[in-house]
Every structure is written in structure tokens, then in C-alpha cells.
């Protein structure tokens, strides 16, 4: 009889411990389900007066990879994320919504799978002729295989691959935000006699934004800035740069923001842009970065 009572008490203790552990995980990760594969990935939401920033951080020593995906036809972020056990994803490079062709370079498994040079609406656009050299040499997020080591970098398309490394994957977008802003060098902005004559992505205006960054420790950051109201909310590029720097970013690259801004994490998709009525804009995409 005493032994039976003792065993019952032990069961109650174990149940209490399990409930406590479950509640603790909910406090750490929020109320949504977190798979065991994502336990080393951090997801946080930062609230600011005019924006809500969703941030996914992938530790440098995790077993996860960050790679680009590209679609022949424009595809929703959820469809990209539905493949191959994707934990997180963020919208990627630039594209022309009319012909659905890329305006950014994308490399997958050492192969060039998206080439802006074959986009006639880009190459034959007379308004862009003065900037084509810069547009075709924009920043890209790279994954190198250096022997047994995987490395990530953000650099211009023309940058030389490090010795003893293979350029495994790359996704172009831009401009590079850190360590310096290369908006002019990448053809996003241009000045003539001190006057701004080109501002392709409204660098100083608040908007929905997205970015990828690398910290001093080598962690990878995916950040998506959501608007809080349809009128002049979100972040400027300088504001996004300062925010990423506060998170410890040493290198950072802007992704195709505005209506494309979107981030997926553990089964839920967050959108950045609001229409005039305050509804979330869900724009199909050409490319994304995925975490597996």
C-alpha cells in the first residue's frame, strides 16, 4: 500500500515537471509550435512606432543552410516554403512583374539559374542604359564551400571567389547596407550637380523592407519590416541599416522590399506592405532565401 502511494506521488511529480517544461517552451518560443529542428533558431518581433520587425537569427554553428530558391513563374512565399522541410524563408531578389523575369543574378549548386542579362525589358530599357553596368554588378548573398567548411558572405557580383573555395549559391539584390551603403555604386540612386535624379527604391522614405545580414560572430539574420499603417510607415534604408547594426550585423544587404516584403517561419507567413485599406499585400515572388 505504501509503495503504491509512493509510485502515485512520483507520477504526479513527473506530470508537473512535464507541464512546467511545456509552459517554459511556450514562454520562450511563443504559443505556436516549434519543431525540434528549429530549436537553435531564434525568432523575435521588435515593435517600433511605425513598424513591426520580424527577425530570424540562424547561429553560425548550426546545421542549417541558407540557400536561394527560384521559380519559373511567380510563386507565393508559402509555396516556396512548402518544399523540403523549410523552417524559415524570406523574399529574395528583384524581378519584373510584367514578364516575370529576374533582374538579379541567382546561383544554385554552382549553376547560374537566373540571369538578368536575358531580361529584354531590363537590357533594352533606354532609361536604364546609363546604369546597366551598375545594375549588373549589384550586391549578392553568397554561400561558399571551402573544403569541409561552409562560409557566407555579402559582396558585389564581380567579387573574386576566395582561394580554395567554391561559390555554391548566390542571390543578388541590393544595395549593400553594411559595412557601407552602396546605393550609388549599384545604380539605385544617382545625382547630377548635387541633385537627386534617380531613386529606384525610395531609400530615404519609410516602406516595408527586408534584408539579410551577417553578424561579427557569423550568425545569419533575416529581417522583414512590416508597416503599421498604410501612410508613411515602415523604415527607410538608413533606419534599417541602423537597426541591423544594433543587432550586431557587420555585413548587410537589402532585399526586394515594398510589396514583396514577406517572411515565413514555422508554418506562418508575415507580410510587410499594407494597401490603402490596411490589408496585407501578398505578392507572388521570383526568388527567396530558405533555411533548412
UniProtKB/TrEMBL annotation:
InterPro entries with a match to the protein in the record: NAGPA
Domain of life per record: Bacteria
Phosphodiester glycosidase domain residues: 84-291
A Pfam family hit: NAGPA
Protein name per the record: Phosphodiester glycosidase domain-containing protein
Organism whose genome encodes this protein: Hyella patelloides LEGE 07179
